[in-house]
Amino acid sequence: MQNNANAGHGEEENRMNTGVWVVLAFHLVLKAILCCIIRLLEIHYTETAIADLERLPPRVAGQIMRKIDRLQHGLQGDVKRLTQFDCDYRLRSGDYRILFDVEGQSVIIQRILHRRVAYD
Q1: What is the third-level CATH fold of 42-114?
Q2: How much of the chain is helix, strand and coil, in % rounded to 5?
Q3: Average pLDDT, integer, range 36-65
Q4: What is the DSSP string of 81-119?
Q5: pLDDT exceeds 60 at position 3
Q6: pLDDT class of 98 with cuts at 50, 70, 90
Q7: What's the rounded Cα separation, in Å, for the pair 53 and 64?
Q8: Interacting residues of 43 by C-beta distance below 8 A, sequence separation 6+
Q9: What's the whole-model pTM score?
């Protein structure tokens, strides 16, 4: 009889352990999602930057938009801090330069220009 009682107890214990692992996994996933959400930077475009983007060929504009989207996760990629210039940073995308500022949790895209005229 004791074996049957212990067998039932073992199944219940396994279910409890599984429940603990499910709760722990859920907690870890939720924590990871919240960390990602909190760290995302907001991207804003000036009217001038939108006009710059509209003048570009669709393929180039798409490439640039993908680069800009990556800035939400931080200043990654070919980002360089500018000195003695109107904008604080530049992001390189092929022959184009994305000129932007960072204010708090916001990235403000100021201009998107070909490298020949970006720093004039």
Answers
A1: YaeB-like fold (3.30.2310)
A2: 50, 25, 25
A3: 86
A4: E-SSSSSSEEEEETTEEEEEEEETTEEEEEEEEETTTTT
A5: no
A6: very high
A7: 9
A8: 68, 69, 71, 72, 106, 107, 109
A9: 0.67
